């Protein structure tokens, strides 16, 4: 498989007062096209920092990040904004939908700026919300709101789908159905999904498991016997 993402010796330091915090300390990693990657680690390990840098929401202190044939660490503000808008779909723990827009409008609002976007209605049908497209976020359950957020990310037709604890606010059954949706989308569209979580039990659904500890890569495991979410219990 062709390489899509590469981190080379990436460090990230945050300065709070006089004390620097090393969130990432020499991270090397690579991810291929179409891979479903799970990034695991304890709280504060650096998982979200990796995701935020990859998504162009944060910058490195040193090192290089390549996505496709471009080095995003060389991008200026304008190119980073374009990259975030066109190439990256984000799914967060708290769905961040716009409360006064209905499901369809939430998706359309996000795709407006994207050249190659998909049809918002089609994607909402795909995530199982055919009959809810006119509902406002307050009229939808947590799981349904997360489906809208996933539709919003996918409808941009991005290169990457980045998910930060996407099931963190959901109950077991709903969380599982959201993971299944992400797994199905990855299988059907061959889009690369990078999912950050504390929950090591979901690792068997990934092609690659990257463990992060104290800002460093602890291990990378290629999973040759990937499992369907339905078959995983935790
Ligand atoms: N904007 C920031 N300013 C200062 N320190 C930060 C900032 N963002 C992250 N950090 C610090 O960097 C380290 C890594 O944080 P990060 O959010 O990447 O961890 P995480 O593995 O995603 O944790 P969690 O699972 O709790 O979200 C932590 O020590 C955190 O406090």
Description:
Keywords: ATP-binding, Nucleotide-binding, Transport. By secondary structure, the protein is α/β, with parallel strands linked by helices. The protein has one domain: Rossmann fold, CATH 3.40.50. Helix content is 29%, strand content 29%. It has a six-stranded mixed β-sheet with strand order 6-7-8-3-9-10, with helices on both faces. A four-stranded antiparallel β-sheet has the order 2-1-4-5, with helices on one face. The mean pLDDT is 95. It binds adenosine-5'-triphosphate. Residues 14, 16, 21, 23, 41, 43-49, 198 line the site of adenosine-5'-triphosphate.
Topology:
Elements: E1 3-16, E2 19-32, E3 36-40, H1 47-54, E4 62-67, E5 70-71, H2 77-87, E6 88-91, H3 103-111, H4 120-126, H5 142-155, E7 160-164, H6 172-189, E8 192-197, E9 208-213, E10 216-222
Parallel strand pairs: 3-8, 3-9, 6-7, 7-8
Antiparallel strand pairs: 1-2, 1-4, 4-5, 9-10
The protein binds adenosine-5'-triphosphate (ATP).
Adenosine-5'-triphosphate binds at residues 14, 16, 21, 23, 41, 43-49, 198.
Protein name: ABC transporter ATP-binding protein
Family: Belongs to the ABC transporter superfamily.
Keywords: ATP-binding, Nucleotide-binding, Transport
